Amino acid sequence: MFYDSNDGAKKTFTDNLDLGIGNKIRYRVQSKLANGALSSYTNELGYDVTNGSADIQYGTMSVANIGWNALFFKNKYLQVSPAIALGAPSNANFSTILVPRAKVISSSTRTNIQILPWSYQNVSSLSKEESVPYLIAPFGSSDLGGLKVMSNKSSVSGAWTNITFASPFDTIPVVFANQIASGTTFATIVRVRNITKTGFQAKIMKESTNTSTLSAEDVSFIAIAPGTGSIDGRKVVVGRTANNFVGFIYKSISYGDSIPSPIFLAQMQTCNDDPVTAGLRCLAVADKYATVVKQRERSSGESTVSSEMVGWIAISSVQTPSGIEQSKDGSLLSIFPNPVRDILHIQGDGLKNQDAEIFNTVGVLVKRIPVNENKIDVSDISSGYYLLKIKGLPSCKFVKY
């Protein structure tokens, strides 16, 4: 309950949104009648709030309809407008082909997100909730823990448009591009191709049987150098598949690393069967891989597709421990690298003749090993999060991958 009144003259009520209470806020409303009885509840309403720092924000939005859904920026973009990138939606409504779109409502405070079915399907509602991953970055140059990020917008129509980066990349980046005005009432999708170190081509696509002319509108893009980086203490991996990898059969994309509970965005980097209109859907997202498929709109009755190269980014939803802990008496324990693959180096007072104990997240002792030359071998334990304990020193968390 956030408002209760017996004032019959009051017809409206305004409530200030609290963006700090969570990422997914849902509510229902009912009215108090003149006799004091309560009306039935309305349909569920709500909004989502981003995760992330002041510069780059990210997350996964839950969508249960084909209308526009509000996504508020936890940190406002007061100086520079943001680019919006949407990944492949989930596939809960597997019999309906859906594509995601964005519409910036306020460049400083929020955007709307929609997943829209192609018109020929005559779908007006969704039976199951879908999820749409998103990445938001300010126009200009950013950084993801050593990975170069370039974001901007360009006017794009139904014809291929050349877009040039403000500064070239050292390697060919992964490009995520989306509409941020979405002026049509019917489904559309942005496709990219010919990505180089200096730029790429993009165009907006619609159903093949739709005879409407697509006017030029703003398309934002986020280009990221491939590799391993970080954001807000969370591991980030950016990569691309081989060409002709993802087609009409589900294919699994390996991150080459373990990413705890990742936020996974994927978009096609090629357009091998232009002018076929198609998008991606995501069947599953796991700690080491995600499974995606290319879905063609079938208004013309055709269903064949060519396979594509897919670019992706996986962002851990769990912060990586720093590897430095201090007890109340001032004793320090420092470990590195963190995350670690094999040898974990340890620095601290009184390590000589000590045993290190490693516990998993449910408190089970996984390994006890002497600390020799200030290092221990953890190559034989499974990937995951662990707690390192050494007598007389503070406990320290680490990630094994």
Q: Could you characterize what this model shows?
A:
The protein has 401 residues and is an all-beta fold. The protein folds into three domains: 1-46, no CATH class; 50-316, no CATH class; 324-400, Immunoglobulin-like (Sandwich), CATH 2.60.40. It is 0% helix and 46% strand. It is built from no helices and 31 strands. It has strands spanning 24-27, 45-49, 51-52, 57-63, 69-72, 82-86, 98-106, 110-117, 130-138, 140-144, 147-156, 161-164, 174-179, 189-193, 199-205, 217-224, 227-231, 234-240, 251-254, 262-268, 278-285, 289-296, 310-316, 324-326, 332-336, 343-348, 355-359, 365-370, 375-377, 384-390, 396-400. A five-stranded mixed sheet has the order 1-2-5-8-7, with no helix packed on it. It has a four-stranded antiparallel sheet with strand order 3-4-9-6, with no helix packed on it. Strands 10-11-16-13 form a four-stranded antiparallel sheet, with no helix packed on it. Strand 10 (140-144) and strand 11 (147-156) form a beta hairpin. The model is unreliable at 326-330 (pLDDT under 50).
